[in-house]
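Sanity check

After download, print the first record. It should look like this:
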Amino acid sequence: MKDILRELQSLSLKLQRREMTLVDSSVHIKQTINVLTAMKTTGGGDQRRRLNRASHRAFLRTAYRSQAWSRRSKLLISAFGLESRKT
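Expected structure tokens:
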């Protein structure tokens, strides 16, 4: 949402300039529309950061679970004497 507001604020400031012509304003409006459309399809920077954080947390949970499973399995193997015996 912040990304969209930043783009609209930038457009507003450009349109308020004294030297702005009708042709220039049309170009800036079309550019802003293109940027907003791209944000809609790919997601803005904030959305990407949230998705990255969520995927990183999921990775950490998976890594922690696999480490915990590895420790538990080693404890069970040693407790029941199921270690592979070297011959």
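If your output differs, re-run the checksum step. Summary of this record's structure: The chain has a mean pLDDT of 76.
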